[in-house]
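Subject: for your reference before the review

Hello V.,

The reviewers asked for a structural picture of the protein, and I figured it would be easier to keep everything in one thread rather than splitting it across files. Below is the amino acid sequence we used in the manuscript, unchanged from the supplementary table.
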Amino acid sequence: VGSGLENHTKYGELIYAHNGNDLLVNLFIPSRLDWKEKGVTVTQNTKFPFEEKTELVIKTDKAKEFVLRIRCPKWAGGTAVDVAINGKPYKTDIDGDNYVSIVRKWKNGDKVDILLPMKTYMEQLPDKSDFYTFLHGPIVLGAKTDTEDMTGLFADASRGGHVAHGKYIPLQEMPMIVAQPEATISQLKAVAGKPLTFTAGNVLRSNKYKNIELVPFFSIHDSRYAVYFQQTTPEKYEEMQKQIAEAEAEGLKLAAQTLDQINPGEQQPESDHFFKSEGSNTGIHQDRRWRDAKGWFSYRMNTKGNKEAVLRIDYYGGDKGRNFDILADDKVIATVVLDGSKGNEFYWVDYAIPQEILNNAADGFITIKFMAKEGSVAGGIYGVRLLKK
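And here is what came back from the structure prediction:
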């Protein structure tokens, strides 16, 4: 998962913080804090998230007064957490910053026990589409599917080696939530003897995978998995399966025909294709990224040695007054005029690449360039795909 790895190096920055006489406990991670200004050491003992509690042990050479502020996470109910000091319950109130405060003259060996109830819940994708993920406390849950056809799913050291090239599994085989969202959580049951493991009964349904379990996403290795689950009702399930199968068949057919592709405006695909530009811009329209230029922009694409290929470009029908050339290895293969005549829809156009260019492609790569006519704009371009003829 690429740059997500760097997050783990930053936890230590945020477990504790201080503001004057206040000591803030933000994260529940086994750790030891040396608060040198106060001559205080705080040790946090916990097996979180495999237990719903943490313990703070105070070490000090003499009694010292300071405010211990403990974060009350949203995933714990958004209310004041239960606290005990040296085994005795301590009444707390949550403040506007979602912390509880303990004002006390702390003595050497004082222990603070904090209960962190972890509720199970669902979150919908931000775009409000009908996809949800399951969480238990702050832990994202996923479902292992199987380990078939794993070849090509492990990264190597090559450029672009992080991109999965394994076999596609049809989307209609993936587990789906077959219930109203509000009725789903009540069907989740904890599995005895398996920490942080849940079954979902018949609300998480698949024609292929049976006895599906939800487990912490961080624990899934060397397996295919699902994290986001599409939601439908029992009445619509079979029809949706049919629609997904039809769309999937078209998608797999296109994937089999595709030699190379780029999503313009997305950092990683553009970097992988040696993006260059002059006077170029990017943005999002109707949830799709685009790129255009008052000058030009280009990508290097892999023909995989094919001597007959087609360049497919995605456009938006409402773009108008835009005139530009498309070049392959600096030879014009098409002149494009966007006049807005296709209205509020996306469409694609195929352009044949001359065989001479493909025959002379160095190492099987060609450079595709979009160059604006004088006083005009090249694009917007919403998709670039190189296809077998």
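For the response letter, the relevant points are probably these. The chain has five helices and 30 strands. The longest strand covers residues 288-302.

Happy to draft the paragraph if you're swamped.

O.
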